[in-house]
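re: ur question from yesterday

yeah so i grabbed the chain u mentioned. its 130 aa long if i counted rite. heres the sequnce exactly as i have it in my notes:
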Amino acid sequence: MSLVRQGDRQSDLLLSWDELPRSAGHPFYDRLQDVLRTAKFDGFVEDLCRPYYSSSKRGRKSLPPGRYFRMLLVGYFEGLDSERGIEWRCSDSLSLREFLLLSSREAVPDHSWLSKTRSRLPFEGSVYCP
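ran it thru and got these structure tokens back, copy pasting raw so excuse formatting
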């Protein structure tokens, strides 16, 4: 029996993002993503939410408002009534990670981030939506 060195086997364990299996996607969320991109949704909500975000350069950089609203859409369409449930569902699905526009190394925002963002925005009815 020969000795196998751990260093010799380690290269088999490392995979790049391109080598991982890709999700077939979810037809509904793929179509919704097309609609949101066509409507320039991210720019629209960033402009609407700009007054409610700090302009100082201190602290951790905020996550995009478009991702917040996409997570709320997932909660609405999946029938999830808790922020923890939304976080879990988005973490569990590769197609939802793509819908949230997350890179391979980005984590799904946690439920406390959803709560903090919700507390910054005004109550319904006070934001202009054409």
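noticed a couple things. Residues 23-51+63-120 form one domain. also Residues 36 and 57 are 29 Å apart (CA to CA).
anyway ttyl
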